[in-house]
Amino acid sequence: MQNLTTHLPTTTPTSLHRATTHPFLRRAGSGQIPKPLLSQWLSQDRLYAQSYVRFIGLLLAKVHLPRTPSPANDENGKAIQEKILDILISALTNIRTELGFFEDVAREYELDLNTPLAGLEGYEGRFSAGPITQGYIDMFVSAGSAGTSLLEGLVVLWATEVCYLRAWRGAAVYLDRGSGGDGDGDGGDLDGGALRKRFIPNWASEEFGVFVQEIGDVVDELGMVELQGGKDGEDALAKCERWWRQVVWLEERFWPDVE
């Protein structure tokens, strides 16, 4: 059977491309996102990150460690549940660091992380999760619920991270092309350089790529076990595909309209 992380992107090639090549990303890489719009988007992304903490907690509750220890100093001998535990702990540590990073960069570049959504009926002047952010929050609660398998939850985790990585690596292509705007700050960047100097290098980094690959590895390993066996395996695969499609749908709509 094909690895799950290889299979899932093939089910939504067009929508995945749109989600990870949005015009907002191109403008971000070119320094063409003004501070008010960046503040608005970061405010929503921060709410997303906060909900991610609870999601990881729900997934941790699904992990059942083996009663017998793994062989000493043998990474390959670790039980899959132990590997999943390690990944989830790393995810929790990373998101805590990320939340602090948001606040540090916001202070450095004078960005407001409590910026209400603009131009959206019912949200003017009131800071709260927008409809797509709320969609992510609700999805995390559902994907971590008692009726959802650990594999499904890990698929959601991997899907959100791999889409984010692909999106910002696409934006990073524009970093060396310079800003063509009329803004002030570093190189004319409309946000003063926050995206191109701080955020994008972090979100497109090799370190983040390794982390996403590690999540994918445990998804594939667990999938090889749980997706075997006739009708049950087919049903489990169909559920994973539905979660993937939901993440891609949300990701495409999470980026602000810039055109």
What does it look like?
InterPro entries: Haem_Oase-like_multi-hlx, Polyketide-peptide_reg, Thiaminase-2/PQQC. This is Thiaminase-2/PQQC domain-containing protein. Pfam families: TENA_THI-4. Residues 19-222 form the Thiaminase-2/PQQC domain. This protein has helices at residues 4-10, 13-20, 23-29, 35-60, 80-109, 131-143, 150-172, 194-203, 206-226, 230-254. The protein has 259 residues and is mainly α. The chain has a single domain (4-65, 74-178, 187-254), classed as Up-down Bundle (Heme Oxygenase, Chain A), CATH 1.20.910.10.
What keywords describe this structure?
259 residues, mainly alpha, Heme Oxygenase, Chain A, 10 helices, 66% helix, 0% strand, globular, Thiaminase-2/PQQC domain-containing protein, Haem_Oase-like_multi-hlx, Thiaminase-2/PQQC
The gist of it:
This protein is an all-alpha fold.
Low-confidence stretches: 181-185
What name does the CATH topology carry? Heme Oxygenase, Chain A
Radius of gyration, taken over Cα atoms and rounded to an integer in Å: 19 Å
Shape: globular
Total of domains: 1
Strand content: under 5%
Q: Quick one: CATH superfamily?
A: Heme oxygenase-like
Total count of helical runs of at least 4 residues: 10
User: For the record, what CATH class applies?
Assistant: Mainly Alpha
- Distance N terminus to C terminus? 42 Å
Can you give the mean pLDDT? 92
Label the CATH architecture.
Up-down Bundle
**Helix/strand order, N-terminal first:** HHHHHHHHHH
Report the structural category. Answer: mainly alpha
Task: Please tally the β strands and state the result.
Answer: 0
Q: How helix-rich are the residues, as a percent range?
A: 55-70%
Most strands sheet: none
